[in-house]
Amino acid sequence: MIYDKAHQLAGSLRASVEYQAFLKAKEALAPDEEAKKMVRDFMLKKAELEYEAMTGKAEDKAKVEQLQRMYELLAYNSKAREFLEAHARFQRIMADVSKIIGEAVAEGLDLFAKD
Fold it and tell me: Fewest 10 Å CB contacts: which of 35, 60, 67, 115?
């Protein structure tokens, strides 16, 4: 039963407007190797900064400024910009779904919570 629901959710995500837009943007970006590399570099740098923030490392203003400059350059390329926007919209849905599921079972996962 639970696996059936998980497969239904997966199908709903695949059929969503946001996922379809993401796939379309990815396909449009694919032939442009330079833009793809810029997007990849941007996403890796962004993930690096997010990881540093999660681990409590102090914000590196130079890295933040570099990321901002990278985004500004990407924004001039419509395919790269559309890909990043579509990716962000779909990632938001994935985060929301994950949060909903997590909150639904939070009580059972609080084994290590302080009393």
Answer: 115
Whether 42 and 84 have beta carbons less than 8 Å apart is answered as yes
Q: Does 25 reside within a domain?
A: yes
The burial of 56, by beta-carbon neighbours within 10 Å (0-12 exposed, 13-18 middle, 19 or more buried), is given as exposed
Whole-angstrom distance, CA of residue 12 vs CA of residue 28: 23
End-to-end CA distance of the chain: 34
What would the pLDDT profile of 87-115 be if each residue is shown by its tens digit?
999 999 999 999 999 888 887 777 666 65
Which secondary-structure segment (H or E) carries 82? helix 78-104
Q: Which residue has the tokens 């407007």?
A: 17
pLDDT in tens, 50-80: 999 999 988 889 999 999 999 999 999 999 9
**How many domains does one find in the chain?**
1
With the C-alpha atoms ordered 91, 92, 96, 97, is the resulting torsion angle positive or negative? Answer: negative
Q: Does residue 78 contact residue 84 with C-beta atoms inside 8 Å? A: no
Judge whether 94 lies within some domain.
yes
